[in-house]
Amino acid sequence: MDKAENRSKLADNFLYMLEFVVDDLLITRPNLCAPEEYPTCTEITFRSIFLNIRDRENGSCVSPCSPKTGKCTLFTLDSPITDEDVMHIHVYKKRTESCKFLLGLTELPMKPIFDRVKKEFDSRNINWEENVISHVSRLPKLRGPCKKASDCICYERNRERREQWCPTSELTKRMLPLFNLCKMQTGNIVLILRLVCNGPSVVSSFPVQSPRCCPCQASWPVPCTSPFDPCDPCKSVKTKSK
């Protein structure tokens, strides 16, 4: 594996944080089927991210002095950002997940924002990729030969681990038009968004397999067939009522 491929994987495994605030919401063409007493909720979807931001109002007038509502999330990217990556924004009058009425939807392209934040990170953290690769190459190995001759320099004061990178961010405020499924504009939403790039992530995503109680079973949960069955996931003695 060459250095270029190593660098690509390091950049793809960055740890990001997204913060959202619904600064203002104006519905000019209301959904007449939506009950006014239902709270207004903004659902934000981007790749594996899903956030539900409940608005300040509950069927009553919004006070401009009330605090803004928002949320934030940490995530990594499982593949590089492309032009097809957009943030989907849906505004509903929602009571539950199965009982909601669409007020409007819109999209926000994300690649330009990611590109600017990543470019600033590279400019503020010069040679960060070479520093990470150099640090990983000097880590002790469980198997195989280790370079013990260089271990002593790790105790010198100028040999701290260079992993506290300078994070970079971009704060943007966008007014986006909302449309219904009939392609009619229903209003506008003002969204404050901040994207933070923290550099190489500490933990990356990994697949999780379903646990198995023992090799004799191929499914989970394992059915409880006997009070003393070693494959019983409950691991408790079951008694029949007399």
UniProtKB/TrEMBL annotation:
GO (cellular component) term, any one: RNA polymerase II transcription regulator complex
Biological process per Gene Ontology, one example term: positive regulation of apoptotic cell clearance
Annotated InterPro entries: Bfc_dom
MF-aspect GO terms: DNA-binding transcription factor binding; transcription coactivator activity
Superkingdom of origin organism: Eukaryota
Domain Transcriptional cofactor Bfc: 125-200
Name of the protein this chain belongs to: Transcriptional cofactor Bfc domain-containing protein
Source organism of the structure: Drosophila erecta (Fruit fly)
Record lineage: Eukaryota, Metazoa, Ecdysozoa, Arthropoda, Hexapoda
Gene encoding the protein: Dere\GG14769
